[in-house]
Amino acid sequence: MHPSAYEFATTCLSGPDVERMRVVETGAYDYNGSVRNAILEMVPLSYTGTDCQPGPGVDLVCEAEKLPEALGEGAADVVISTEMLEHAEDWRAAMVGMVLILARGGRLVLTTRSAGFPFHPHPGDFWRYSIAQMHDIAVACGLQIMRLETDVDAAPGVFLLARKPVTWDGVDAVALAAVEPGPPR
After folding, report:
1. pTM of the prediction?
2. Which of 28, 36, 48, 53 is most buried, by CB atoms within 10 Å?
3. Is 24 helix (H, G, I), strand (E, B) or coil?
């Protein structure tokens, strides 16, 4: 994980955001760093690391789009996805899966890479997202954007902190389908 993604994911939430909350991490396979220990220090009720393949940091082998079936809708108060979305071939289904397991009022922490970031297949590398595209994705998913920023480091990326409104009324599939991230270059 890029150090700036780690810093964002571990500092955009504070103890009260996590304490006694159900946390689910998607893309939790620890290839090169994990936020798990920093989040566990905030004393969540539970922490479940998920990924499409078994490995370090993975408690449940499950693709992000299948999380609602595996865990149930509204099963997480906090969903964390660091550097996973660019690796999801069906990124729309992965986003919908994350949003569906997020409880109303819950928070989504997401980091991903933008155009110009090197190709890094773990296991695949399919997409690059701009800040405008991530804005449109969050809005299409019915999320309230709390923070949306570019990676300030030399590695192009996008960081998002969003909340699922208590009055959430679903994903706008048409708007989500209209977002077209670019391929890795």
Report:
1. 0.96
2. 28
3. strand
| Domain map (residue ranges) of the chain | 3-178
Alpha carbons 100 and 17: distance in angstroms, whole number: 19
Whole-number Å distance between alpha carbons of 185 and 80: 26
User: Could you give the CA distance from residue 167 to residue 155 in angstroms, rounded to a whole number?
Assistant: 36
pLDDT single digits (tens) 66-93: 999 999 999 999 999 999 999 999 999 9
Give all strands of the β-sheet with 144-150 in edge-to-edge order. 60-61, 46-51, 22-26, 76-82, 102-113, 157-163, 144-150
Q: How far is CA 73 from the centre of its chain?
A: 16
The token duo for 139 is 């809005």
What CATH code would you report for 3-178? 3.40.50.150
User: Pairing between strand 76-82 and 102-113?
Assistant: parallel
